[in-house]
Amino acid sequence: MTDITLGSIGLLERFTSWEVSSEPSLSDHRHILFMLEGSVPVRLIRNPRVTNLDSFQEGLKGRLERGPEMIMKDEAGLGLAILLHKQDLITAYEDSCPLKPAKTGKHSLKLTSELESLRRVVRWLFNKCQIGLHKVGNSTDRLSGEIERR
Question: Model confidence at 95, in pLDDT bands (50, 70, 90)?
Fold first, then answer.
């Protein structure tokens, strides 16, 4: 089977970095990850609500059981034990709650445009108050009215 990658000279000039992924693929080849100049990287997040709790408990239990035996006779030994167990917790959580791309739906864009519109109205009214076109006592009522109308 031939592996074909489509591209152009113009696209080649926009590459800023690349690396071979360590993620498993269903191919004989590993994936190549790259960034393009001007592209927006995908924001990855973890959603704690979808954490696989059984996997988390098993992973943490396994890490704690096979962890190093430590004699905590002094402050340094205790500090090292805390550091290692903290890393065990983090690793168990990351293994049971994978990273997923953050969703950017049409609702978030709509909210952003509504907020931008309100920001403009508030800024316009604030500037009018600053230059004295409205009385200070009346400006708060006017500002509230304009925001409610929008």
Answer: very high
Owning domain of residue 34: 9-42
Please report the pLDDT score of residue 56 as a whole number: 93
- Residue 3 lies inside a defined structural domain of this protein: no
Average pLDDT, the chain: 75
CB 43, CB 102: distance < 8 Å: yes
**What's residue 40's pLDDT?**
63
**What integer pLDDT is reported at residue 53 of this predicted model?**
93
**Same domain for 87 and 116?**
no
Flag whether 65 is in a domain. Answer: yes
The whole model's pTM is what? 0.45
- Residue 15 confidence (pLDDT): 76
DSSP readout, 51-105? --HHHHHHHHHHHHHSSPP----SHHHHHHHHHHHHHHHHHHHHHHS--EEPP--
- Element of type H or E holding 15: strand 15-20
Measured CA to CA in angstroms, residue 72 lies from 64, 86, 89 at distances of: 16, 16, 20
In the three-class reduction of DSSP (H, G, I as helix; E, B as strand; rest coil), residue 45 is classed as: strand
Q: How far apart are CA 5 and CA 34, in angstroms?
A: 13
- Considering the domain boundaries, does residue 2 fall inside one? no
